């Protein structure tokens, strides 16, 4: 019998050793994620308690962020772009300074009311640690393998969804290709990071959804239409972000002027719109979507626009938690129109908008299972499949490669 041809094969001994290394990597990343995540939540609580004293200074915080990146950023200024360059073999190292730099600047963004996420930061933190581990090894594609391990650990440590984190790290760098060589070491890294951050008290969002719907053609059609709506929202976010970044750089080439003056305008908008309803991660909108609290028809759109504006002018943070908030609040609005349970549609939106904006398929489905219950995976699969298929030429990650026809 002829064996399966492999593009890269690691010996069993090396693979086992890498799994053990993954445990150490996961412990370190889990600790870093905990420090970053718990401090971020603490600062967010302070901003929520005193919005009128903090949000007006968003523009000034922006000046400090720009100064820090221009003074000491170096290659770290590329952020997720540098992670993708290392993953594609265009760069070899991620500077250690990225860790304190992206952590501090993201804290500043959230403390003073910017609308941003945290996932991009966690992935960068994990990727930096993984890249550092990789410098001590010498085998084919070792940078890609350790980067995947680190990204999986970073995502898992922050969100405590290790299975989703593993697939996110394996599929996000290039569409149509899974970095399966890193699968086993990534499992050890991701689960260790997730358990470490959980043990150290980092919060995990979960909401058990119990449904008893028959997956007939009527429900499949509704989920498909919802997936298309969510896919369009995700594509709108990705397109708006890349487009506005380019336009802002053209309209206001000086980064200090750009972040300060637009930041002042953002401060005013955030304060006028219910004193920071759309500031920060968007977890308030997520909670409202699943707890039956007050939601406006336009919540999802305002969160989308204000997050895009915040990130396009130079504030730091990720996009994923705002994408979760956009999807959940849009789902809560659409659910009555389709005659489906609000919690189920909000959950489908939560993962499907993320899928569309990041061009990932497997990770969102597993997020749905790990956060909302695996009994709902069949519903999530259909919604995500249609959201993912809308237009995979748009992505929040500008250096993501497309290897598919």
UniProtKB/TrEMBL annotation:
<keyword id="KW-0472">Membrane</keyword>
<feature type="transmembrane region" description="Helical">
    <location>
        <begin position="174"/>
        <end position="194"/>
    </location>
</feature>
<feature type="transmembrane region" description="Helical">
    <location>
        <begin position="373"/>
        <end position="391"/>
    </location>
</feature>
<dbReference type="InterPro" id="IPR014743">
    <property type="entry name" value="Cl-channel_core"/>
</dbReference>
<feature type="transmembrane region" description="Helical">
    <location>
        <begin position="12"/>
        <end position="32"/>
    </location>
</feature>
<keyword id="KW-1133">Transmembrane helix</keyword>
<feature type="transmembrane region" description="Helical">
    <location>
        <begin position="215"/>
        <end position="236"/>
    </location>
</feature>
<dbReference type="InterPro" id="IPR050368">
    <property type="entry name" value="ClC-type_chloride_channel"/>
</dbReference>
<feature type="transmembrane region" description="Helical">
    <location>
        <begin position="145"/>
        <end position="168"/>
    </location>
</feature>
<protein>
    <submittedName>
        <fullName>H+/Cl- antiporter ClcA</fullName>
    </submittedName>
</protein>
<dbReference type="InterPro" id="IPR001807">
    <property type="entry name" value="ClC"/>
</dbReference>
<feature type="transmembrane region" description="Helical">
    <location>
        <begin position="321"/>
        <end position="340"/>
    </location>
</feature>
<feature type="transmembrane region" description="Helical">
    <location>
        <begin position="256"/>
        <end position="274"/>
    </location>
</feature>
<keyword id="KW-0812">Transmembrane</keyword>
<feature type="transmembrane region" description="Helical">
    <location>
        <begin position="52"/>
        <end position="69"/>
    </location>
</feature>
<dbReference type="Pfam" id="PF00654">
    <property type="entry name" value="Voltage_CLC"/>
</dbReference>
